[in-house]
Design a protein that fits this description.
mainly alpha
């Protein structure tokens, strides 16, 4: 079986399912998770008139500057999802603004929204992240950008992510920031395994 790292590495570096990086991973790795969240909200969560009106406002926004302003705001789960969907509708206009801001912001809500944007967007942000990583000032933002790389499935990120997992572990012990690059490595490992299985399946196909 193809491996990007030895089994020992993953045994010595377990995933912490209570970390912010894991939550970000879970919310983006499967649409089923978001569907369940929406269903719970619809069935059990009372939406007051103010939140309902805000949802309508966000859903109709077309000005990138206004959407950008909302990225810093504390929104409930449903309105946050509406905002993120809206950001992607204007991806080409939003990307330069978000990339510039992620370098300096310390606002965790903005960082979360930026990670969602990079993970779900159509444009691969990997090369930009690597080229600008050293200029990202906030450690949480760096951790989330590492996690983002895992969603884009490039084995070339492995050495970088291993190094960042070690840096976060030593510089910010107990903060769980190492989970960003670590979960990305787990994702790359899984991708490598499935890629090898697919290749074996193609090789075993009889000639027509």
């Amino acid at each position: 079986m193809k491996k990007i790292l030895p089994n020992r590495y993953f045994k010595e570096h377990p995933i912490d399912t209570r970390s912010g990086a894991y939550l970000m991973y879970a919310m983006n790795a499967s649409e089923d998770v978001m569907s369940r969240i929406r269903k719970i909200k619809e069935d059990h969560v009372h939406v007051d008139d103010e939140q309902a009106e805000l949802e309508k406002v966000i859903a109709e926004l077309e000005d990138p500057a206004e959407l950008f302003r909302f990225m810093r705001k504390e929104l409930d789960g449903c309105n946050g999802e509406v905002l993120r969907d809206r950001l992607l509708k204007f991806e080409s206009s939003m990307a330069p603004m978000i990339r510039e801001k992620i370098l300096t912001t310390k606002n965790e809500r903005f960082i979360d929204n930026a990670a969602f944007f990079f993970i779900r967007g159509e444009e691969d942000p990997g090369q930009w992240i690597l080229e600008n990583y050293a200029d990202i000032q906030d450690p949480f933002a760096r951790s989330m950008m590492c996690l983002t790389l895992g969603f884009w499935g490039e084995e070339k990120y492995t050495d970088f992510l291993v190094a960042e997992e070690g840096n976060f572990s030593s510089e910010y012990p107990g903060k769980k920031l190492e989970q960003g690059p670590l979960i990305a490595l787990y994702m790359l490992e899984e991708l490598a395994r499935w890629s090898e299985q697919a290749e074996r399946g193609q090789q075993s196909q009889p000639e027509v």
